[in-house]
Design brief:
80% helix, globular, mainly alpha, single chain, 281 residues
């Protein structure tokens, strides 16, 4: 038994080594780098002070939080209706839809932005078609705006939310609805008193994942708007690569604060899920 346990532990060595080299070492290096001001050798909190005193930097956090919350809420609402609708299809069709959702959720970054530019850009297919058909909405739609950014965020958030919410809807058994109907409950009363409380933990967990996914998005926003909009991920990229001159230490400080925000979001999600489960139970 001891030899068997030793062999099992040995199989974990590659995984543990991978986690240490590609997670903890970069994390420690980033935190250490954030404590140095560019050109100085003494440890200090100058980078963090500059972030909180310079409106240009803390505004980037505000913008990222707003766009992440907006896209997550929209995607979550759409996912609730979509995931529920999928449950009415046959098992074979459900599997095909989920495969397509999985593929779509991974279609992000530069290819996604390019696809939207081809379709809805200033010379996009739908934009030109709208001019020919005199469709006012698409004629005045600006893809390179906050609305366009939210649209792209929702696009890659929605399939992920559908995949995460579908098992929760699938777990609501038809017998519960039938029993509620026999007792005189309307469909609205069933969802308000039974269905929604059961779904709340999944909704809380999925919302947290969507928010973290949107906060960390970089390639899609940068490919669409460049440095036009002040988002924290774009600011980090600009400071590391050096649009004007590189400030990797300040970029590391921004990345540390971004990580703290995501950790806080996950802890808040855990607290909400425990509270919801306790209240429902």
């Amino acid at each position: 038994m001891k030899k068997r346990k030793a062999s099992l532990y040995l199989t974990l060595v590659p995984l543990i080594s991978f986690i240490i080299l590609f997670l903890f070492v970069p994390l420690i290096s980033m935190i250490y780098s954030s404590l140095f001001k560019n050109g100085e050798t003494n440890l200090s909190l100058s980078n963090y002070i500059e972030i909180f005193t310079n409106p240009y930097y803390y505004k980037s956090f505000e913008n990222s939080i707003i766009i992440s919350l907006s896209a997550s809420v929209i995607a979550m609402v759409l996912a609730l209706f979509t995931a529920y609708a999928i449950t009415f299809f046959k098992k074979k069709i459900q599997d095909r839809i989920l495969v397509m959702a999985n593929l779509t959720s991974n279609f992000a970054g530069i290819p996604l932005s390019f696809a939207f530019i081809v379709l809805l850009g200033n010379s996009g297919v739908f934009t030109i078609l709208a001019k020919e058909l005199d469709i006012a909405f698409l004629q005045h739609f600006n893809l390179y705006s906050w609305t366009g950014l939210i649209l792209i965020y929702v696009y890659f958030q929605l399939p992920l939310a559908v995949m995460l919410m579908f098992p929760a809807f699938h777990g609501i058994q038809g017998q519960w609805k039938e029993s509620a109907a026999l007792l005189g409950a309307s469909p609205l009363q069933f969802w308000r008193r039974i269905g929604l409380p059961i779904l709340l933990p999944s909704i809380a967990g999925t919302s947290s994942i969507l928010f973290a996914n949107a906060m960390g998005a970089y390639a899609s926003a940068y490919a669409l708007t460049g440095s036009t909009y002040n988002l924290v991920t774009i600011r980090i990229g600009a400071l590391i690569s050096g649009d004007i001159f590189a400030q990797p230490e300040l970029g590391s400080a921004l990345a540390v604060l971004l990580g703290l925000i995501l950790i806080f979001a996950m802890l808040l999600n855990e607290w909400l899920m425990r509270k919801v489960r306790r209240d429902v139970g």
